Amino acid sequence: MSGATQTPAPRPDPESAPPTPAGPDPGALPAGTTLRFLVLVVAMVVAMVEMLSGILRPLPYQDVQLVCDFAAGFDPGGKLIDELVRDPAQAQAVRACAEGAEEIPRWYGLAGTGTVLLAAGGLYLLLPRWKRSRRGVEPLHTRDPQGEVRAEVVRLAQRAGVRSLPDLVVDRLALDPGAVVYGRAGRRTLCLNSGLLHARRVDSARFEAVVLHELAHLRHRDVDIAYAVTALWRVFLALVVVPYTLLIGGSLVAAQFFHVFLGADEVFWPASRPATIKAIAIAAFLFLLVVLARADTLRHRELYADRGAVALGATPAVWQAQAEGRTQGRSATRAVTSLWRSHPSWAERWQSLRNPAGLFTLTDVPLFLLGVVTLVTGNALAAVWNRDAAAWIVGSLAACVLTVAVWRAVLYAVHAQAPGPRGIRAGLALGLGLVCGELLSGPTVQPGWWPEHVEPLLFPLLGSVVFVAWLAQCVRLHLRAAPSGPAVPRRAVLGATVAGSVVAAAGLDWWLHEGQLWMTGDILAAGGVSELARHSFPGPWDSFPPYESVLPWIGSVLISLAIAGASPTIAAAAVALWAYPAVLLLRRPRAEGLRSTLLAGLAGGVAGVAAVAAVMAYVHSWRPPLEERTLAYGAVYLWWRVVALWAGVVGTAAVVAATTRTHRLPRALTAAAIAQVVVLAGQFALQAADGCLGPLRVMGNTCHVLPDASWTLTELLAQPVTPAFFGAALAATAAAQLPRAERESVSSGAVRRSWPARTVVAVAGVAGIVLTAVVTNPMPGDGSTPSAVPARPEPAGTAEKVRDFQLLAWFKVGGQADIVALASRYDEFAKWFKGLNADKGSFDGDTLHPLCDDLARDTATARRHLRVPDPGLDRKWSTLLDRGGDAAGECKAVLDGSGDDVDRNTKMLQQLVAAFKQAQVTLPPLTDRVSAALKRWPEWKAA
What we know:
68% of the residues lie in helices and 2% in strands. It has 34 helices and four strands. Strands 1-2-4-3 form a four-stranded mixed β-sheet, with helices on both faces.
């Protein structure tokens, strides 16, 4: 706390002092500073690993993965989705190509990060010593021989509850009436400015306020955090950011303007230039992000210390006098520059004391920064480790920070008798941060600045709004359901944190596995899922409108919902979305609203069952013969049943949220859960009695009750229906923004008995959890989108320079060796064939056998390698490999046998000759094309 004025402060004004309302103190919860710093430290550590790995790699650096991608046909100007749905055999060849190269050991980056952290620890230990050794700093007793100042500081420390008095020193060169506390754990120092000692004689209130402010820092235990992060940030800047920028930026400038290649291979430079530029921009943005977050946290640290000083007895008029004496006009420039300052202005400090809402409400900048850090860190961890682990670690950290912030905001609203946070604006700030983080670091955005499809970015944006609104309303519901008096319900905060962590981890897990892929386009359609459905479920997909109209929805939406619903993480999050608020509703001391929620859920379930019946009547009107009903007809029927079930769940949530007055989102999700249980039970009964329902008959012709078959279909339906709770939460959040319905209040004596409604809701909740657990069946594999990938399409509009580069890359990573090996084998065969005995069928098998062995080996090796990136040349190359492999295999089979079958011997020789002729029409054009590309490449580089 510092300021340069000697004007005596007026005495306390009772009307100017901040109000002190009764109720639970929201300041009893952690301020979020520690968790916020933890997220930033994680982000910096991840950035250190990645940036130091780039700095420590050997030069010149050859990006082998990039070369292999080009050899497989990668086109920088093409569509990323074509690369994602690459033929599995080709993808395996790309991995094998990259594995054969020398890689940068991961421990380079880890070792470098450890060194940086050790340097930060050393700086943390040296900072206090450096501050104490500065010129002008001397012990307090040299300026206070009578001990009056020390006695007053001791008195104030006792009032503040500071047990261990810090070392007291004076900075005789600092003339402003301020002070600062610093030091490491176990040895603190309170440095009083010389100007403060002079101000004490004329303004004791100012002296007391300054000292109590610094003692509040000790009381809040934020000195260690501030200095540790300051040390880490400075070392991160000096040892990571600056060297990275100089090396990568210097290599960009040298390559672009001087044709000197330091950090990139000269051959591959044009293709890697956009990625290099973006890497520098990302590093700069991450640096600015850390600066913003650090400044925001330190500003709030000062505001918290001001509040703590006033709570300890400091005079608020001190801040008022300083604010009035330094009045400044508001401007856009000052508003922007204030984001970078680590200390708030006096006007901000006085405003915070008069109205401390800014310390507790959900503000935009921290939430935006939290969103950016969350996805940048999640993408980095997913790239170097595991997407599931990254989702749980990063999602849980973000949920912890956000949950504590929401609890503080709601508690303050209750404490100050003010409206609580709705979560819409805060969710938008968080969502915009997630979107920005994805655009910066998303793997499906690289190396460009913008994805091919931005529509999927609505998922993190709207999902953040729903998540924050859900947390805020659940917290308010808890405080109404189980008021804790003046005590802060820490167990409830822990419960909300656990539920929020599950939901946040599930959302991040889905985004890392599936959502990012959708920014490249319809990944399932491009992967051939629609075509797979055509072949798996034959039917008139192109000639009958009821089939044709839903095929794209089946191939994309239905499969995506089934994949998501089969994930245990997403299933657990769906349960948490409704189970957590349902438990809070059941804990309420009275049944107010519970009965109406139960009735609404039952009504929504009945409506969903009616929708299922309508679907059955619709598909009954054009059902095919019995033997065709499990084919295309069954797939279409499954789709419409899922639509009906979704309508029942989502519609129930939207209606309840729009028509209720209080706790709209929790009650809507609870009603949706009841509706899901009812509608699944209803469809189970309808399906079991399918053949007995007359105009509703779909699969059966005769009346039989088949519960086993119906349960199998229910399990199949439950997976795509599980994500309906996320749609229900979105619909309920939107509907909850409508004007509230005005109803007459019900007196406490008129409230109905609560146990029937509680019992039914509890039973429905247990049934929903059991049903979700039973039907959740994780799909095998690594969690990525399964697809039936077609062959690589013909390139359209690929530049000639890129085609030359692709062919040269293929030639470098294996094509040259395969051409030389096969050409040698067929030259040996030609020599052997010339010396063949004229007697038909008579030949020297001892000489031919090793030749066939070598041909079979070299052909198999070429098949494992990448295909020729030129489609025309690749067709000839593939034909050569097929004929050569078949001929070599037949040759070995014949020679390993008796060799007395003249017809088989003749056929074997004919196959070898055909393979030889194919080599004559394949290898010369291929080598000529490579030679032409090699001649043109210097011209491309010069251009």
